[in-house]
Amino acid sequence: MRQYSADLTPPWKKPQPVPEVPADPGLVVEEPGTGFCGAVTGCEAGTVTLEDRFGKRRVFPMEPRGFLLEGRVVTLIRPPSGSSRSSGPVRPARTASGSVAVPGARARVARAGRIYVEGRHDAELVEKVWGDDLRVEGVVVEYLGGVDDLPSIVDDFAPGPDARLGVLVDHLVPGSKEWRIAQAVTGEHALVVGHPYIDIWEAVKPSSLGIAEWPRVPRGQDWKTGVCRALGWPPENTGAVWQAILARVGSYKDLEPELLGSVERLIDHVTVP
């Protein structure tokens, strides 16, 4: 007598098998129920610990089909005992900004939102420290060349819910010209933040350059030229001096906190869902 299966579910409706992936330290996955994305830092007692790009950690149960890896559903399993990569919790690799690195991540298609900075030096510094994060988030950085035309630039950009604009301004202190312009253009979808330094050079910590402090340049003198003269650097080629300064910046640790906080605010603003 022929035996029939009691399972009458059509094949196309049955759950498809998913890959089992060892929860090796540094593996970046997403828990779809919460949207939390981070790198594996530990695995024990049927749970896995993830750390996101801001250093926040959460523990999740290692349930079947419980995670997304590069957009695909996977089941995380405990790494094989004795594996050289599972000898204990490790801290995931970091980008220059201090975020958790995403190994093998491809650049996201550029968002409609943008971050504007004042000049080329500002853009190069932001790229060096936050470039990996910006590519993952699909954020493009452009430079203005100055803030005087910012109101018309914001009007032309027409910020909206799906096209947020963030602007980083040098020397943004209360009462300054830059401050008044920023107040005039800031709105729900346009955020202008800045730092108190006369030029982006000054946002690099003096200790990272081997100097005691940035020189004070008398008002009315070109700041970059005055700095170069005071420190014995070639004042006739500030572009070359900047490249030497930029080469000394290895990570966020070489920058002043006032700049770090402003750039992080801008990235959060333009990437909000």
From TrEMBL:
Domain DUF3097, first and last residues per copy: 20-79, 114-271
Domain of life, per lineage: Bacteria
Pfam family, one: DUF3097_C
Region (Disordered): 1-20, 78-98
Protein name, UniProt field: DUF3097 domain-containing protein
Source species: Streptomyces marokkonensis
Lineage: Bacteria, Bacillati, Actinomycetota, Actinomycetes, Kitasatosporales
